[in-house]
Write a structure and sequence with these properties.
The complex is a heterodimer of chains A (about 290) and B (about 150). With about 290 residues, chain A is α/β, with parallel strands linked by helices. Chain A has helices at about 90-100, 135-145, 170-175, 225-235, 270, 280; strands spanning about 25-30, 35-45, 60-65, 65-70, 85-90, 105-110, 125-130, 155-160, 185-190, 190, 200, 215-220, 245, 265, 265-270, 275. In chain A, strands 11-9-8-7-12-13-16 form a 7-stranded mixed β-sheet, sandwiched between helices. Chain A has a 6-stranded antiparallel β-sheet with strand order 4-3-6-1-2-5. In chain A, strands 14-15 form a two-stranded antiparallel sheet. Chain A is globular and about 50 Å long. The two termini of chain A are about 30 Å apart. Chain B is of the alpha+beta class. Chain B has 4 helices and 6 strands. Chain B has helices at about 5-10, 20-25, 110-120, 120-145, and strands spanning about 30-35, 40, 50-65, 70-75, 80, 95-110. In chain B, helix 3 crosses helix 4 (about 120-145). Classes of the chains: A alpha/beta (about 290), B alpha+beta (about 150).
């Protein structure tokens, strides 16, 4: 009988070593993104450390002596071993994480979970709908799409945040917008009169966004309510359900489907997700008891 | 030669699928307008005697909130509708509409349209149905905004 500490016979994709053993990573930089959100840039202490990931996967980040949290990878998959993780200060571990300084060490296990359908979307339009910090898990997909831009038709990013000040990666968004081969629309829920952009929930941009719904892959990440209404709008527009993907977030602990903390209906978010095709979770998304 | 606005009306999503006979009736109440950035299309409390179909541009719907000042509650852009206060008494605007980017729009005379609706209830029903859909969508959006989805609890 296997115990949690034994190495599984088949490692999850991307894992090169024991998935329960954190590898030490050194903090290269800490950047404040917004009032309550920050990004850690990390490099392995062991230069021989092999690491690769696919867009959408997450790592377990371990603050020694405090605890471990699952956080999506938000860096460029072609830029490993450098890892970037953007997170919000919401609990004990992320609060301690925010106090860490350049040069300090933390543990990383991963990568875990499923990925965005970046390869599958080749030859089609891609619409990415992000809400708030939900842009972070989608950023690796954007890097990959932009790196292989010629493989795709239209690429549209619809991004909604609470206020203009809550926008992530502002500088990068401006750079991408300047390339003219990525349509970026940003909207905020509320703004002072000095804001010259869109105001309204992100779902309102879907009806007029420039993509061919019958030939589109959609990738959605944000608060669950936002994702439910976004999926409704995408389906209404004509995007097939099986080509609509979203990233679920649950209380992941082990990362490999052993502990059951992240059970979501009949699936484990850490192992079967976090990225799901909508039909896989259509019957359970939005149910309060799950 | 007199050019009518009917072809332009037919292109706007608001009139998608509307019978030509109705378009002809409505076109008589419409004008083509252009607003520069910074222009105030209407002020809160002023008579609501028009509505606008934005062809291209961006307009903010704003109001003054104590302590916060002038606040934008929504924006209206390409293919969208600005204003429904012309449909219901007392026909007064409840918000300000400020142009953020140069805007091309179709302006419709509310009184002219209401008179036509009184004469042709089917036409009125068709327009009210289309506005109800917009009102319903905006109510849903407002509810999502009120949820403050991106807050710490999200």
């Amino acid at each position: 009988m296997a115990t949690m500490l034994e190495q599984p016979e088949v490692l999850p994709p991307g894992l090169a070593s024991d998935p329960m053993l954190p590898a030490p990573y050194r903090i290269r930089r800490v950047s404040q993104e917004t009032d309550d959100t920050f990004t850690l840039e990390l490099l392995p202490e062991d230069s021989r450390e092999r690491f690769s990931f696919t867009p959408g996967q997450f790592n377990m980040l371990y603050v020694f002596g405090v605890g471990e949290v699952p956080i999506s990878i938000s860096s460029d998959p072609d830029d490993v071993p450098l890892l970037k993780h953007t997170t919000r200060v919401v609990g004990t571990v992320t609060k301690a994480m925010r106090q860490l300084k350049r040069g300090e060490t933390m543990g990383i296990r991963g990568p875990f979970g499923t990925h965005w359908p970046v390869e599958e979307a080749a030859g089609r339009d891609v619409v990415i709908v992000a809400g708030g910090i939900g842009l972070a898990p989608l950023r690796p997909a954007l890097y990959r799409l932009m790196a292989e831009r010629e493989k795709y038709r239209k690429i549209v990013l619809l991004y909604g945040t609470r206020t203009p000040e809550d926008m992530l990666y502002r500088h990068e968004l401006e750079q991408w917008r300047g390339k003219f081969d990525l349509q970026i629309e940003v909207t905020v829920d509320r703004a002072a009169s000095t804001w010259r952009g869109n105001v309204g929930v992100v779902t309102t941009m879907i009806p007029r966004a420039p993509f061919d719904p019958s030939n589109t892959f959609a990738m959605v990440c944000g608060p669950e309510v936002m994702m439910r209404f976004t999926v409704m709008e995408l389906l209404k527009r004509g995007v097939p359900a099986e080509r609509t993907y979203l990233s679920a977030e649950r209380n992941m602990k082990c990362g490999i489907g052993f502990c059951g903390h992240c059970q979501y209906g009949s699936t484990f978010v850490c192992k079967d997700g976090p990225v799901f095709a909508f039909p896989r979770i259509a019957s359970i998304i939005g149910k309060s008891e799950i | 030669m007199i050019h009518t606005l009917e072809p332009i009306l037919r292109e706007h999503p608001f009139f998608q699928g509307m019978p030509d006979s109705y378009i002809q009736l409505i076109a008589g109440c419409s004008t083509n307008v252009r607003f520069e950035a910074g222009h105030i299309i209407f002020h809160e409390g002023d008579p609501a005697d028009h509505f606008y179909l934005v062809r291209e541009g961006l307009v903010s719907v704003q109001l003054v909130v104590p302590h916060d000042g002038l606040t934008t509650v929504m924006t209206v852009s390409n293919g969208e509708v600005l204003g429904w206060s012309w449909l219901f008494p007392p026909y007064r605007w409840h918000f300000d509409a400020r142009v953020q980017k140069p805007t091309h729009a179709l302006a419709f005379d509310g009184k002219c349209l209401r008179d036509k609706f009184d004469q042709d209830h089917s036409l009125g029903y068709e327009i009210y149905k289309r506005f109800m859909k917009i009102v319903s969508e905006r109510l849903e959006s407002t509810r999502l905004q009120l949820l403050d989805m991106y807050g710490n609890h999200a």
